[in-house]
Amino acid sequence: MVTVRAPATSANLGSGFDVFGAALTRPADVVTVEKAAETTIEVTGAGAQYIPEDPEKNTVGAVVEALDAPARIHIDKGVRPASGLGSSAASAAAAAVALNRLYDRGYSRSELVPIAAEGEAVVSGVAHSDNVAPSILGGFTVTTSEGTHAVDASIPLVVCLPDVAVSTRDARRVVPETASMDALVETVGNAATLAVGMCRSDPDLVGAGMSDPVVTPERARLITGYDDVRAAAFDAGATGVTVSGAGPAILAVCRGGRRRGVAAAMLDAFADAGIDARAYQTRIGRGSTVLEE
Ligand SMILES: Nc1ncnc2c1ncn2[C@@H]1O[C@H](COP(=O)(O)OP(=O)(O)OP(=O)(O)O)[C@@H](O)[C@H]1O
Ligand SMILES: N[C@@H](CCO)C(=O)O
């Protein structure tokens, strides 16, 4: 038996659509696997009632297939589905690390990233790796078709999760098919600024580099109260605010000591819009951890 904890993640970070990702210290999924002749999946925890236990429909089932590793699997969800916090990816990441150990497949953490990404194709139609990469490797990650680079960074964050669901599949439909050269130049500049900020663990640079003129404005329209929550976070001292992944969670970058005030301001703004929400005071953290084997 092997048990692995895989953290929630925030993908895109604004300017790095389908490329950037960051592991969060909390929340997390915990997946336990035991060898079995046939794969069965049991799901408990946050939003379990919305998650299929059929291996054909669960992200973990695709990982079992890719590793040829049938197992009795228990998923304890800490990351609510359709959150923008890499819920589907956290389960897939934990399962990839756990099944690799259980069956002694010998893949490196980096080699497990595309394997876990097969699960994302099951739910969103695209095997994007920007959530599974940080959930496995930890830190800030840059993922391209050539592979993933991970950087340890110490950046305080708040993620505010409203009590509404936005599926990645739906949120990908609003992504523009084209962008102007001006928008491209602005985005490249911002993404590069953010990457430098991560290497320096500088929340001012990271926050400034999250601005994105292409995808985020379209995604923000799907989140009731977004503009007010964003403004409230800036007023409380956030250095940057954007949609986390495909939403509806909203990510705020903070300097040390500002998270409590930023979290309270974001919750108040959602409440003013008539929406219940919860806030996680978190930071960029480590990837999947083996808890028991
Ligand atoms: N193991 C799993 N954990 C969570 N969701 C799963 C899992 N397997 C299948 N799903 C399905 O995936 C969908 C949620 O995935 P989706 O990518 O939309 O959200 P997310 O992972 O929270 O978001 P994001 O990728 O934007 O961070 C739901 O329809 C859910 O039923
Ligand atoms: N890059 C993905 C992350 C969400 O899973 C998107 O924004 O659609």
Automatic annotation (TrEMBL):
<keyword id="KW-0963">Cytoplasm</keyword>
<dbReference type="GO" id="GO:0005524">
    <property type="term" value="F:ATP binding"/>
</dbReference>
<dbReference type="InterPro" id="IPR014721">
    <property type="entry name" value="Ribsml_uS5_D2-typ_fold_subgr"/>
</dbReference>
<comment type="similarity">
    <text>Belongs to the GHMP kinase family. Homoserine kinase subfamily.</text>
</comment>
<dbReference type="GO" id="GO:0009088">
    <property type="term" value="P:threonine biosynthetic process"/>
</dbReference>
<keyword id="KW-0418">Kinase</keyword>
<keyword id="KW-0067">ATP-binding</keyword>
<feature type="binding site">
    <location>
        <begin position="80"/>
        <end position="90"/>
    </location>
    <ligand>
        <name>ATP</name>
    </ligand>
</feature>
<dbReference type="Pfam" id="PF08544">
    <property type="entry name" value="GHMP_kinases_C"/>
</dbReference>
<feature type="domain" description="GHMP kinase N-terminal">
    <location>
        <begin position="60"/>
        <end position="139"/>
    </location>
</feature>
<feature type="domain" description="GHMP kinase C-terminal">
    <location>
        <begin position="196"/>
        <end position="270"/>
    </location>
</feature>
<comment type="pathway">
    <text>Amino-acid biosynthesis; L-threonine biosynthesis; L-threonine from L-aspartate: step 4/5.</text>
</comment>
<dbReference type="InterPro" id="IPR013750">
    <property type="entry name" value="GHMP_kinase_C_dom"/>
</dbReference>
<dbReference type="InterPro" id="IPR006204">
    <property type="entry name" value="GHMP_kinase_N_dom"/>
</dbReference>
<dbReference type="GO" id="GO:0004413">
    <property type="term" value="F:homoserine kinase activity"/>
</dbReference>
<keyword id="KW-0547">Nucleotide-binding</keyword>
<protein>
    <recommendedName>
        <fullName>Homoserine kinase</fullName>
        <ecNumber>2.7.1.39</ecNumber>
    </recommendedName>
</protein>
<keyword id="KW-0791">Threonine biosynthesis</keyword>
<dbReference type="InterPro" id="IPR020568">
    <property type="entry name" value="Ribosomal_Su5_D2-typ_SF"/>
</dbReference>
<dbReference type="InterPro" id="IPR036554">
    <property type="entry name" value="GHMP_kinase_C_sf"/>
</dbReference>
<keyword id="KW-0028">Amino-acid biosynthesis</keyword>
<dbReference type="Pfam" id="PF00288">
    <property type="entry name" value="GHMP_kinases_N"/>
</dbReference>
<dbReference type="GO" id="GO:0005737">
    <property type="term" value="C:cytoplasm"/>
</dbReference>
<dbReference type="InterPro" id="IPR000870">
    <property type="entry name" value="Homoserine_kinase"/>
</dbReference>
<comment type="function">
    <text>Catalyzes the ATP-dependent phosphorylation of L-homoserine to L-homoserine phosphate.</text>
</comment>
<keyword id="KW-0808">Transferase</keyword>
